[in-house]
Amino acid sequence: MGLQSKHIVLDLDKCTGCRICELVCSFYKHKKFSPKMSAIRVYYNYELYRAEGFTVCSQCGYCVSHCPTGALAIVNGIVVINYEICSGCLTCVKTCPIGALITVDGRPFKCDLCFGNPYCAKYCTRGAIHVS
In CATH, what is the architecture of 2-123? Predict the structure, then answer.
C-alpha cells in the first residue's frame, strides 16, 4: 500500500475548526447533519481558538488484513467496505490503529474519499482539506 495510497490531508494552519467538513460528510453519506456520523473528525482547542488535530482514514489497509469476512478491500488505493458481505463483527473498528473506523447504525463506516471527489474538501471554505 504505502506511497500509492490516497488520503485526506488537513492543513491545520488554514483550518478554522468550523467542522463544516464533518457536517458535509455525515449528510452526504447518511443524509443527517451529525458530526458523530462523519468519517472525518476535527479536534478544536477552545482555549487556543484553533483546530489542533483531526482523524480520518489514512487508507493504510491494516483493517483489510484483519477482516474475517473479506468485506474490506483496497480499490485504486482506497480502502472500501462491501456491506453485502460485511458481518457487522466490527473487527475493523477495533483494530484500526488510528481510530478512523467508526460505527454508524451498528455498521462500520470510514472515509472512502467519496470515490475520488471528497465532499469535505469541496466544501471547505478555507481550502484546508485536500487529497494527497
Answer: 2-Layer Sandwich (3.30)
